[in-house]
Specification:
By secondary structure, this protein is mostly beta strands. The protein is built from 2 helices and 39 strands.
Length: about 775
């Protein structure tokens, strides 16, 4: 029913022939290879109370490459520059069995030649002055077909300027076939036609993300310096999506979204220990994603392509059988069933976010350090032309066709400020205070006009257009948040220190939605909500010996109310980290993190926790061998009351108690979710001689979780899965400039539970990487 969106752009018909070509290329041309690495994108720091949680499916892993030996060729001196260059050329030989979509989702490394990495460094030598740059560095990895490509460029010219540029390309492929899958039961037939299983995710994802960042600083070490920057993030490509209109229609969603950011800034060192900064940020978002009907796998008796939806877990109810003739190609469907003939949606969105920011930091006053920031944003968001068209049949409402047009706009005014000060009262005692303020207001308006056409058969033309039904909505969302944290710190001794903090946070929310239909004045029920939170934090740092360090903290807070069910009223957070170095070449470390959150309100009963514990050891007695060990355990748990409707009802379904306000939902669930995960690794590095270095190891993760199943055909899937990735690599420097490398990675994913009414998701794969490394 759904075709796969290809995740590969390179194919090799014969792995054996390709391996021969790689070997011949290495022996004749002496060219290289090395595992690529990705510079991970970071997001601006934000205050959080919960650690980042693991995803259900394991992430892509890369093998630590065999380390370079200490033998390095001398730099080339040319035209007053010391020049050093490297290049790694080679390729992958990839083979796998089992699920192609899961291999592409978790690994997506394909066979083919690669420019695995290259670098160029130039540094000015001597006393000659050069007009353009004193230092230049550029490097790149992953080009030639890998899903991740990175290029870096850095240039500087003494006191004049400093330039940094970064380009990243990342293909994001996701096809976990249980995601958004209706799980069509076996043997669902009508008039000889069997409704097919959905073997790819109805929300399959296959996009490419291109990120460009450039930053330039003028007069970087002067009293007044200037900074400018530009970044662009483009996300585009095909995905699947869905829409419900009588039945669930499959859509081809063509992504094309981009964000452009401009920065201009001035830094002024007013005093040796005081700096003032002004920054202007401009962010422009452009969303041009569109949706079109896909999945037209049947036909009407007149030959028109049609879809009865992909969510038919029971035979569709129509006037007569759902399938009129199963012997035609394609199969002929009943024109009185719920179905789609045409659908498209387009909603071009534009957003402009100008932000002014003033910052300062100072330590000019004795024993006082302070910093502060004020930000103001006046943003405008505009959807000038919304267009949605449906042509098909929704039999319950006798809707034959519908056209929706409209427009929308909104404004966001955001004011934020923070101020922090530290007072060193004495050699051992300090007091600090951090105040944060955030106030945003977001008014918006929306206009929609809908013209419907009635009918009872998709063979007949839609009826005459109805009079337009108009809807006008005026909305407002505002929130003012103030947080103050007062901390006292005491250095009790060289081996022990502690801190105690009190935190108060207040939130005032304002919301209104006024709706008016067909010219009637907008009406609604605005509301406000005030939330007050009090909390304390105790921190302890211990250093029993010079080799052993322990630090930990305990945080507890309570709020008088919450905005959503899963927001906690009570929170406890415990953290411990310890490091022990019995020798200079040995390090043993461990961590424990426990976040507990509760909202014990009647008919909410929310409880969640995120607990993790890790232990690791690294031993490197000399340059010839080393050992690294790690083990971790994580448990993410959540439970909250929820209302739902299901037919048939799952085993043990509990009816909704009176007075819960669940509307048409007749069952009450727990929303239970638990995913205990264990992961571990071992890595060994061997370098018996300077010219040879190797590494081998094993990594694994295993999840043994469960959740509340509301669908009787639902299976645990990745909640009960295992992922293992053993690896090995070698590097042989047969001269000061040349090195031969080989790398092997094994990827094995399996789910030890029932597969469900779809395709298996397990796979096994090997990726061999051969290369030559050259330095000059």
């Amino acid at each position: 029913m759904m075709g796969r969106l290809s995740s590969t752009t390179f194919d090799v018909s014969s792995l054996r022939a390709f391996a021969v070509r790689i070997a011949l290329g290495i022996s004749m041309c002496a060219v290289p290879l090395q595992a690529s690495s990705l510079a991970q994108e970071t997001s601006p720091p934000q205050e959080t109370t919960a650690p980042a949680q693991e995803t259900k499916t394991p992430s892509k892993e890369t093998t630590p490459p065999a380390q370079e030996t200490t033998t390095q060729p001398k730099e080339t001196i040319k035209d007053g520059y010391a020049i050093h260059q490297t290049v790694d050329l080679g390729g992958h030989i990839a083979e796998h069995s089992g699920s192609d979509p899961m291999y592409a989702t978790l690994v997506n490394l394909q066979s083919g030649p690669r420019i695995l990495s290259q670098s160029l460094e130039m540094h000015a030598v001597g006393k000659v002055k050069y007009p353009f740059f004193d230092t230049l560095m550029t490097s790149s990895t992953g080009y030639g077909g890998d899903p991740i490509n990175v290029t870096v460029l850095r240039m500087s010219k003494g006191k004049l300027y400093d330039f940094q540029g970064l380009f990243r390309r990342n293909r994001q492929y996701f096809d976990y076939d249980l995601f958004a899958n209706p799980l069509i039961p076996d043997g669902l037939t009508s008039n000889g036609y069997t409704f097919p299983h959905i073997n790819s995710s109805p929300h399959l994802f296959n996009t490419v993300r291109r990120m460009t960042d450039v930053n330039l600083t003028l007069l970087p070490i002067s009293k007044i310096s200037f900074r400018t920057g530009y970044s662009q993030n483009i996300n585009q490509g095909p995905t699947y999506s869905s829409i419900h209109e009588g039945t669930q229609g499959l859509l081809l969603q063509n992504w094309r979204n981009s964000t452009d950011n401009w920065l201009g800034a001035v830094d002024w060192r007013v005093l040796p220990k005081t700096t003032l900064t002004y920054e202007e940020h401009i962010t422009h978002y452009k969303g041009d994603t569109n949706w079109q009907l896909s999945g037209l796998n049947l036909q009407l008796s007149n030959g028109a392509p049609v879809s009865l939806g992909f969510d038919n877990v029971a035979v569709p109810s129509c006037t007569g059988p759902a399938i009129l003739n199963s012997s035609t190609t394609p199969t002929t469907a009943n024109d009185t069933c719920n179905g789609f003939l045409q659908y498209h949606r387009y909603s071009p969105t534009r957003e402009l976010f100008p932000t002014e920011e003033f910052k300062f930091q100072s330590s000019s006053i004795r024993n006082i350090q302070m910093n502060g920031r004020v930000r103001y944003t006046d943003a405008n968001m505009d959807l000038p032309n919304y267009n949605e068209y449906f042509n098909g049949l929704s039999s319950r409402s006798k809707l034959r066709a519908s056209t929706v047009t409209g427009y929308s706009s909104a404004q966001r005014i955001n004011v934020s400020a923070d101020y922090g000060v530290v007072w060193q009262v004495s050699e051992k005692v300090s007091l600090s205070d951090q105040y944060d303020f955030w106030n945003f207001r977001q008014p918006g308006n929306n206009y929609l006009s809908e013209v419907d056409q009635s009918g009872t058969s998709m063979l007949a033309a839609p009826g005459p257009p109805s009079a337009p039904t108009t809807t006008v909505a005026d909305s407002f969302l505002g929130q003012k948040t103030q947080t103050n944290t007062l901390t006292a710190a005491w250095q009790a001794s060289p081996k022990a220190s502690m801190s105690l903090a009190y935190r108060y946070r207040s939130r005032a929310l304002n919301y209104s939605l006024l709706l008016g239909e067909d010219g009637a004045p907008p009406e609604g029920n605005p509301y406000t909500l005030d939330i007050h939170e009090n909390g304390g934090i105790l921190g302890v740092v211990l250093r029993p010996t010079l080799q052993w360090r322990i630090n930990g903290s305990v945080e507890a807070s309570y709020a008088n109310r919450t905005y959503t069910q899963i927001n906690p009223r009570a929170l406890q957070h415990y953290q411990i980290h310890t490091t022990y170095k019995p020798r200079d070449w040995a390090t043993i470390s461990g961590t424990f993190n426990d976040l507990e959150r509760r909202n014990n309100v009647l008919y909410v009963n929310h409880l969640d926790h995120s607990r993790s514990a890790t232990v690791g050891a690294s031993f490197m007695p000399n340059e010839h061998y080393g050992l690294e060990l790690s083990y971790g355990y994580m448990d993410v748990f959540s439970r909250t009351s929820l209302c739902y409707a299901a037919s048939p009802a799952p085993a043990g379904a509990v009816g909704v108690p009176a007075g819960t306000g669940c509307g048409n939902n007749i069952y009450l669930g727990t929303g239970y979710y638990d995913s205990p995960t264990q992961y571990g690794s071992i890595g060994i590095t061997l370098a018996p001689v300077k010219q040879f270095r190797s590494a081998l190891g094993y990594r694994m993760s295993a999840v043994n979780g469960t959740t509340e199943f509301l669908n009787p055909r639902q299976v645990p899937g990745s909640l009960q899965s295992q992922y293992q990735t053993p690896y090995a690599n070698i590097a042989w420097n047969f001269s000061s400039a040349w090195a031969w490398k080989a790398d092997w990675n094994y990827y094995g994913y399996g789910e030890g539970t029932p597969i469900g009414p779809t395709l298996p998701r397990s796979f096994r794969g090997n990726v061999y990487t051969l290369s030559m490394h050259y330095e000059f």
